[in-house]
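Write out the 3D structure for:
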Amino acid sequence: MKIKFMALASTALLAFGLSLAAGAGSITDTDTDLIPDVFDNCSTVANGPGEASNQTDTDGDGFGNNCDCDFGAPAPGDGFILGSDIVELFGVFGGSSALHDQDGDGFILGTDVVLCFAAFGGAPGPGATAI
């Protein structure tokens, strides 16, 4: 409940900020998720207010879950999506894990695997809020 409230409050504050900035020039939103790239924690995959994942960043590394298959412990991981991350994802496949839920549906299923395979070998992100 607390996470949903925080997500709602964050979205409201962001919308207010966007309304103030509307006259300041063009705003780039590469993934068209209504979150400008300068604030978006996953600027290449839609994870805005209309998406279930809505800027969720479970491990707090600044990369939204949709762009962060780097699960290594301690968070934020080792900086790359490697075989160990895929093995860890398959270890929770069919279950529920906030850290491994890439699409925000509450379950680790095919969509989550597809997102991680697409990022395999690379680094998480990009995300404007990354630490």
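The first helix runs from residue 2 to 21.
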